[in-house]
Amino acid sequence: MTKQSTSLYILLVEDQLNIVRNISDYMEAKGHVFDFANQGQQGLDLALENHYDLIILDLNLPVLDGLDVCQQLREKSNRHIPILMLTARDSIEDKVSGFTVGTDDYLTKPFSLQELEVRCIALSRRYLLQTNNTITLGPLTLDRKRKQVSRDGQLLNLHAMGFRILTVLVEAYPQVVSRSQLSQKLWGDEPTESDAMRSHIYQLRGVLDKPFAFPLLKTVHGVGFSLVIKENNDEKGDKSES
Predict the structure, then answer these.
(1) 9-131 under CATH 3.40.50.2300, yes or no
(2) Which of 176, 242, 183, 237 is nearest to 212 (CA)?
């Protein structure tokens, strides 16, 4: 099956059929592609046989529980597959156990399907960022090694600070980066005045968005900034104010 550029190939290992249906109906409607397993050994076998972008793994499973599946996968697989573990347990001890055997993130039941998708995309992208120098988000391509950015194949003339800001937003996509988080990334424990950030954002928007049909950089008022990547590059959006 051919995937859309923003879709993920996901293995869902979950024995509760109602949860499987809810996740698959929502996520497949968003364009993601799924394989399913309802017990741990079957999930482990599928994970070792196929090249998934991500595994959603329930903790409480028959035959092999989620911790055993995660541990054996880390021992036997020749690549790191991002794992998001689902659990009804929310104690620190349970989470530490999961991270010890190699899970990458946790989501506690009950959960929002929208949050599940956002976490899956962010987790998969974080893994790609750790392994790839070049990251592509729709029309945007960022080369961290060469410190270059292009949009629709056109090289953008970004200053160093603009490149750093855009890198932070790309790494966080699709999540919103708060002003305080961005300030910490850019200036550490010695933050600059808010006017400086406003100026850098304004300059970045002038290069990244204004020459093009629709904006990628969005201001979430009272919160921070995010990137908006449209499936259809011909769509137009409202430009955000800095």
Answers:
(1) yes
(2) 237
